[in-house]
Structure formats: structure tokens, C-alpha cells
Design goal:
The chain contains seven helices and 20 strands. It is an alpha+beta fold. A seven-stranded mixed sheet has the order 3-19-18-20-15-14-13. Strand 9 and strand 10 form a beta hairpin. The N terminus is likely disordered.
């Protein structure tokens, strides 16, 4: 089956020039995106910066989404979004005081608001989420803040009668060091994605209880029909995990190589679920490194795998961020679009 929407394509864009956004705004096609520099007034609508420390020259670029024409803006409480009726890009931002008070209740409230926004907009299917958590690995009230977040996020999925397990969307969760705000960015649509898992890893929603009172709510990737005959592969934040265990503690070189093996395994899973063909050297990647001093080693390992002259090497953005587990040193997310149909 094709599952392709009869609608203009959703496009993932790495924006290198503000003029690209200006042109899309004039055409009514700019949905929104993520900037990686310090939060400030929107450089473009729905594109507030996150505030990671940049570790590469091109880290001031934006990751954006275009659709339309006919993009419109709407809000519901603290959740705001742009939509063309078929696709939606939205944002939630807490106050610093809310984020500092604890993340379980806040995450539940945020996701409950996001689900309300999706229903109001008529785009019910979550595709991809970006979660940015201040002090993600800090213990607070006897529980790591990332685990607090997982507790609240999953409860919101369950309360809304949404797939919190096998059908969950792609996602990442990174720790920030900026202004203490908890942020969520999300992509949704009328077309459901095809969730994918990594055969080398236990699905996140099946993690044992040692990883917290509630399991993380995400799939390793999704395949999404973005227009007739085109599939987009969106790979979640991927790290050095085999089974459910972090591997190669303290060894950033080995962790990077294990992460790359996991990315290849997810690409292989995508090839089993659709006719589109993807290659890591042709994907657009964002690379998060816990310690800034490790970035050159991570870059060497990454470029050795994809080729120094590849699209992936030239387009890669390197950022300093805390990873969701304290023993993980690097995380990579990736996306690409290719001709094909769902199997």
C-alpha cells in the first residue's frame, strides 16, 4: 500500500541562509523549525532557538519544515503551532520556575496540551518530537529528571488513549544549559507514520525497571509518506546502546562507532518496511556531544564512516548537550527523503 497523502510534500530543510526562510514565508509554506543558538526573539515564526553550545561552524543553521501553501498560526494555552491543514509543526515552552519545580507533572501537562492542540488542528498523528530538558541528568526528589520526564510523558499518552508503546512517534530528549526552560517541538499530520525499531536494541518501551518507574515513550524511527512516491525517514536520537544497556563506558570513540552501527541497523529496518532506499552518507545529521573536548574524535569517527566529502559530513551540526543517560557521551539523530512507498 502507498499510504501517500494527496497533498503537497512535507519537506525537511537544513536552512543555511535566512533568505530561504523569507522566501518560504512569502509563499505561505514555512511551518517552523529548530535553531540551536541561545533563545531569543524568533528568527522566523515558530523557530525559537534552543541554546546549545555550538561545536561546529555551521551550528547556527536551522532545521526547518515546509509544506503549504496556506500556512496559518494558532494557539491553545501554552502550545502554539503552524499548520496547512495536512501537516503541523508546534512548540511548547515552560517557564524556568515550572521546569525547576519538577518534570513529571510538567511533562504530563505539556503533552496533554500538545494532544489537545493536535485534535483542535485536525492533525492527530504525532510524527516526531524534540524534547529539551534543563539539567536532564540531575537527581531531584530522589529521581533523575529524565526519569521524571518519562513518567509524566507516558502518563499523558495513556490518559489520551494514544500509543505509548509499539506505535509511539520518533523522538529525542537532550539536556540544555541555557535559561532553564523545558521545551518541546513536535511534527504531526493527518497521515500516520510507520514506527520502526532497531533489531540490535530492546524497544525503549520494553526497558527493564532499572531504567525508571516508567519506560521512555518513543520508537527508534518512523517512515512517513510525505507526498505521492516519497518517504521520509526520521531517526530518533541514537546512542551507544545494545539491548537495553549502555556500552563502552568512558570511551567516546567506541561509543561513536556503536552509535553508527545502530543508525545503520535502523536504516536496514526501514528498507524492510518500504521501497525507499537510504544511505547514512546521504542523510542530514545532528550530533550531540556531552564533552566539548570529545568533538574532534567524534568527528573523525563519523567522517570515517560516512566519507569526509559526503553530504552527511558537510551538513553535520555538532552541539554540546547532555545525553539522556549519564554514561552516554554522544547521540546522533538523522533524516532523509527518498523515492518509494510503504510496504
Amino acid at each position: 500500500m502507498s499510504g501517500s497523502p494527496p497533498h503537497p510534500a512535507l519537506r525537511a530543510l537544513r536552512i543555511t541562509n535566512p533568505a530561504q526562510v523569507a522566501a518560504l514565508l512569502r509563499e505561505g509554506r514555512w511551518l517552523g523549525g529548530v535553531g540551536y543558538q541561545a533563545p531569543q526573539a524568533d528568527a522566523a515564526p515558530m523557530t525559537t532557538g534552543v541554546g546549545f553550545r555550538r561545536l561546529s561552524a555551521n551550528a547556527d543553521e536551522l532545521d526547518g519544515w515546509a509544506a503549504g501553501p496556506g500556512i496559518r498560526h494558532d494557539e491553545l494555552g501554552p502550545v502554539r503551532w503552524h499548520t496547512d491543514g495536512q501537516w503541523l509543526f508546534g512548540a511548547y515552552d515552560s517557564t524556568p520556575e515550572q521546569a525547576e519545580a519538577g518534570l513529571a507533572e510538567l511533562a504530563q501537562q505539556a503533552y496533554t496540551g500538545i494532544f489537545g492542540a493536535l485534535e483542535a488542528a485536525g492533525t492527530p498523528h504525532l510524527v516526531r518530537l524534540w524534547n529539551y530538558l534543563p539539567a536532564i541528568n540531575r537527581e531531584q526528589s530522589g529521581l533523575e529528571r529524565y526519569r521524571q520526564f518519562n513518567l509524566g510523558r507516558q502518563q499523558a499518552f495513556l490518559d489520551a488513549r494514544r500509543d505509548a508503546f509499539a506505535g509511539a512517534p520518533a523522538a529525542c530528549a537532550l539536556g540544555t544549559h541555557d535559561d532553564g526552560v523545558f521545551r518541546v517541538r513536535f511534527l504531526a499530520g493527518r497521515t500516520p507514520p510507520r514506527p520502526l525499531e532497531n533489531p540490535r536494541q530492546v524497544p525503549a518501551w520494553r526497558y527493564p525497571s532499572e531504567f525508571g518507574p516508567r519506560t521512555p515513550t518513543f520508537s527508534r524511527a518512523v517512515l512517513l509518506p510525505v507526498c505521492a512516491g516519497q518517504l521520509t525517514l526520521l531517526i530518533s536520537g541514537t546512542a551507544s546502546i545494545v539491548g537495553s544497556a549502555s556500552v563502552h563506558p568512558g570511551d567516546v570513540k567506541a561509543q561513536t562507532e556503536e552509535t553508527l552501527r545502530n543508525l545503520e541497523a535502523v536504516i536496514g529496518a526501514a528498507h524492510e518496511r518500504g521501497s525507499a532506499r537510504f544511505e547514512l552518507p546521504s542523510m542530514t545529521c545532528t550530533i550531540y556531544v556531552r564533552h566539548a573536548t570529545d568533538v574532534e574524535e567524534v568527528r573523525r569517527r563519523f567522517e570515517a564512516a560516512v566519507g569526509a566529502d559526503s553530504h552527511a559530513a558537510h551538513q553535520a551540526i555538532y552541539l554540546q548537550a547532555d545525553i539522556c543517560r549519564g554514561d552516554l557521551l554522544v547521540e546522533i539523530e538523522a533524516h532523509a527523503t527518498a523515492p518509494g512507498e510503504l510496504a
